[in-house]
Amino acid sequence: MNMKTYAVKASEIDHSWWVVDATDQTLGRLATRIATLLEGKHKPIYSPHLDTGDHVVVLNARKIRVTGNKLKQKSYFRHSNYPGGLREESLGTLLERKPELVIERAVKGMLPQNRLGRAMFKKLKVYPGADHPHQAQQPATVEL
After folding, report:
1. Could you tell me the residue range of the domain that residue 118 belongs to?
2. Could you give the CA distance from residue 100 to residue 27 in angstroms, rounded to a whole number?
3. What CATH number does residue 29 fall under?
4. From 86's CA, which of 2, 69, 79, 132 has a CA 20 to 30 Å away?
């Protein structure tokens, strides 16, 4: 019996486009599904050392849902690299100020922490409302 393992080449990978509506979706569950699409784990040609994933456009980031008291209790930190430059912001205020950042940070933490993960993250586009400038790519709607 002569069986060969198929190895996909970078030139054979087709990156399609998906649109995800985040309205009334739970943040963490939505982020895991988006990370799966970005990594390409939903495809039979998935290979851990290649970027086989697709482009994902997330709409209505402002209407995301979280459970429990996370709006007040969950904190996001950033530092300006100056002394005393640590800033803390709750999930509720970040959702009001920049709702797309909430989804981006949740998905980024679920991707590989290396240059391949950074390449995957560049294929994520998040918008607070229902409009997006990617009509020319003819994205397909994915139901999550």
Report:
1. 15-67+95-141
2. 12
3. 3.90.1180.10
4. 69
How many CB atoms within 10 Å of residue 11? 5
Question: What one-character-per-residue DSSP string does 85-140 give?
Answer: -EEEEEHHHHHHH-HHHHHHHHHHTTS-SSHHHHHHHTTEEE-SSS--S-GGG-PE
Q: Give, as one character, the DSSP assignment of residue 63.
A: G
Q: Rounded to an integer, what distance in angstroms lies between the CA atom of residue 139 and that of residue 54? A: 10
Whether the CB-CB separation of 126 and 58 falls below 8 Å is answered with: yes
CA distance 74 to 58: 22
DSSP state of 69: T
pTM of the entire predicted model: 0.92
**Cα dihedral across residues 119, 130, 68, 37: positive or negative:** negative
* Residues in a beta bridge with 126: 58
Binned at pLDDT 50, 70 and 90, residue 1 comes out as confident
pLDDT for 6 equals 84
Q: How many domains does the chain have?
A: 1
**CA distance linking residue 8 with residue 15, whole number of Å:** 13
Q: Give the type of residue at 48.
A: P
Q: In one letter, which amino acid is 134?
A: H
